[in-house]
Write a structure and sequence with these properties.
Length: 175
Amino acid sequence: MFGNYKSVEDMLKPNSNAPWGNRLALLLIDIPKLTDYELSNPIQFIKAAQKLIKRKRYSYATFLLDKLMEMVHKLKGPEVAAKYMYKMVRNSSLSISNMIGPKEKMALLGHPAKGVYFILFGIPQSLIITMVSYMENLRIAFGSEKEFIDQEKLTSCMKTAFEHMYKAASVDVSI
């Protein structure tokens, strides 16, 4: 969406076209049913999911929703826009969010940060997955309703899934 990374110095220059502030896009996608073939070939599954997401991302519905939210924000204010967004997501059970993080090492009050995580609160999903990059390393955080999901089982399943994807990617490097 933004093209490439902009440093703070670039954003502070006069007449800079660098993006500032929070931008929110919502992409509603049904969770696909898996077949045995897709389970045995995670790279094919990822490619199919990527194709579906790209198709939905560049559809007119996404463009029109963005313009509608922009108008609601300008005309009615951020509180009304937030309520409208909340109403749209309250009937979904899973939320996945990602954010591009800094590429350079950062410090908070002079203390270097080893990593950056974020999690969304106050949204009505049963399971929330957030991802952020920091110095080109991906950080993933999970949040869920109390006692909604077995933490050890989720961790084990995610480890297994990443191992399968890594093995498949090592064999098929045409991603």
